[in-house]
Amino acid sequence: MRTIRVVIAKPGLDGHDRGAKVIARALRDAGMEVIYTGLRQTPEQIVAAALQEDADVIGLSILSGAHMHICPRVMELLKDKGLSHVRVLVGGIIPDVDVAKLQAIGISGIFLPGTPMQDIVNCICQHVPPRTEAI
Amino acid sequence: MKPVLAETAKAAWEREVLEPTLKKAPERSGPFTTISGRPIERLYTADDIAELDQAKDVANPGEFPYTRGIHPTGYRGKLWTMRQFAGFGTPEETNERYKQLLAAGGTGLSVAFDLPTLMGRDPDHPLSLGEVGKCGVSIVSLADMERLFDGITLADITTSMTINSPAPMIFAMYLVVAERQGADWQTLSGTIQNDILKEFIAQKEYIFPPRPSMKLITDIFQFCAKEVPRWNTISVSGYHIREAGSTSLQELAFTLRDGIEYVQWGIDAGLDVDEFVPRISFFFNAHSDFFEEIAKYRAARKIWARVMRDRFGAKDERSLKLRFHTQTAGVSLTAQQPYNNVVRTALQALSAVLGGTNSLHTNSLDEALALPTTEAATLALRTQQVIAHESGVTNVVDPLGGSYFIERLTLDMEEGAYKYFDAIDRMGGMVAAIEQGFPQREIAEASYRFQQAFEKKDKIMVGVNAYVDPNEPPFPILYIDDQAADQQLARLAELKRTRNNAAVSRALVTLQEAARSGANTMYPLLDCVRAYATVGEMCDALREVWGEYEEVPSI
């Protein structure tokens, strides 16, 4: 069985990377392979990173209110690139009214401030089926 | 033979009174640590501050080293400035909120800009997608600045602007608005945050590399010393360092060391220390650990006074007196059970007041969910007014001075800060330390340690990892739609059609020439602003000269 591979990305102009970094470390401590993209990534760059890294999961950290622009674009690009199997999680400040909309476009998990790390680990383990290493 | 030391009164109490009690009734399991992980003893007595030199370490309010405050009369003379940070959507929407805040008894304005403005990008830049007007007000050109302060007389108020990388551009816009209102720059007062070092360390809203960024700041020091002498040219900020997950001590140490760096660069640029240091102010976080925060503010004043006198030879009393703004900790607010945030904020605000803050922003209860509603923002201001007028704490200066615990903590914070200064000095200063990633790593470690303590419930957040309410009712929030973005985009297109574009191009070229030659950039920036150049255009002109900073991502 291969290790779950996660791309943690920080889209948009916002530089508040505390959450992204803490989650990246927690997932790594939980045994996953974590790639952190750094700040100010466009949806195109994020999807390219997921393709290049053969990611199972993309974690987006968005606190600025731009999630309704960024998430649909990421989902669309994943579909275009034949990466629909990649699960997308979003963490940040997401108003209640947007949660259902994000779920409707296929976001697998939406995590608000105060979420225990274990909940995120569990969500990833639930959504990513074990797969054997490709030869 | 080893000499037998006399048993201290505290040790005798521990042996005679404490130990029998602990045998019968042990203490809770703890850990008894501050939110920063600092171990706290159960009791502090005179024995814990035996080395304290009253005259040298504490003195009286208004006396060096100002541990007990910079004003002899504390808040009996003047209350702190109640300055509520606000901004969202279009300049008109924010202008309306400002008028409400002033009418409700606010005594100063504080401008929150949106991310495109903070990053020096116009609304039509691809990275601005979905960000225009979301986290603050969108300011594109002088025309927006005129709308933002429409009907507000700048000569009569003080304005604080939270702007860093594009601080010179936004400041230039403010000055031109003031000029057109007929205000005299010589008496105009306010603050620009203009603290780029903490951007590299914590908030990450940088544009240019560190060294040209420092040049822009020393340009402002020089410009203001001559043209706008009452303007606070920089607000050296620990707030964002703390929000990024630092400890209280790291916030104190990195912020003051940033301050030292700015002073050094100012002196290296040819300024006299007393010519610009009096206009440097500070900005701290008020986090949830009550006493540790109070000790932090007291230690900050003491350290700054000593460093300015001993390291830089400052003679003007105003260079020695650390003035600071405080904001309660946004990161402590919870999306769960938002009404609890009112209580958190009140306690944090009280710690800032007991620590002698000169101005204060109290967060609104809904800020873990969205930008505040008018009702929430008003309640936040009322919280300060209740402390000021009902609690009685403003009757006396530094009420906690002399507390064994507070004095011990103040000494510990001071000692810890000097250790960090030594480490950073050995690296070659703060710019060099940042280039080596030192403060960034220290903060990331501290933030992860806190997260682990929270996960283990060593640290409790009420309503989040204890006392959880599974049936929380929905909470009404301010929802910012895309109308502001549409309007700002349309206006930008209109501006480019109606202004004199040749004049804009000429002004931008002159700006680039100044940047290349090392001349002061403020004067050509004022000309760019008068020609209605946009924030994005002015920043792009300098990007072409200096390049952009890119952080190496690490976790």
From the structure above, extract its key features.
heterodimer; A: 135 residues; alpha/beta; Rossmann fold; five-stranded parallel sheet; 5 helices; 5 strands; 18% strand; B: 555 residues; TIM Barrel; 9 strands
Architecture overview:
The complex is a heterodimer of chains A (135) and B (555). With 135 residues, chain A is α/β, with parallel strands linked by helices. Chain A has one domain: 3-Layer(aba) Sandwich (Rossmann fold), CATH 3.40.50.280. Helices cover 41% and strands 18% of the residues of chain A. In chain A, α4 (96-104) links the parallel β4 and β5 (109-111). The radius of gyration of chain A is 14 Å and the shape is globular. Chain B is of the alpha/beta class and 555 residues long. Chain B has one domain (54-455): Methylmalonyl-CoA mutase (TIM Barrel, Alpha-Beta Barrel), CATH 3.20.20. Helices cover 50% and strands 7% of the residues of chain B. In chain B, strands 5-4-3-2-1-9-8-7-6 form a 9-stranded parallel beta sheet. In chain B, β3, α7 and β4 form a beta-alpha-beta unit. Chain B is globular. The N and C termini of chain B lie far apart (53 Å).
Outline the fold blueprint.
The complex is a heterodimer of chains A (135) and B (555).
Chain A: E1 5-9, H1 18-29, E2 33-36, H2 43-52, E3 57-62, H3 67-80, E4 87-92, H4 96-104, E5 109-111, H5 117-127
Parallel strand pairs in A: 1-2, 1-3, 3-4, 4-5
Helix pairs in contact in A: 2-3
Chain B: H1 9-24, H2 54-58, H3 74-77, E1 81-86, H4 91-103, E2 108-112, H5 115-118, H6 142-148, E3 159-162, H7 167-181, E4 190-192, H8 197-203, H9 210-227, E5 231-232, E6 234-237, H10 239-243, H11 248-268, H12 273-276, E7 280-286, H13 290-310, H14 317-320, E8 324-328, H15 340-354, E9 359-361, H16 374-389, H17 404-427, H18 430-435, H19 438-455, H20 483-498, H21 501-517, H22 522-530, H23 535-546
Parallel strand pairs in B: 1-2, 1-9, 2-3, 3-4, 4-5, 6-7, 7-8, 8-9
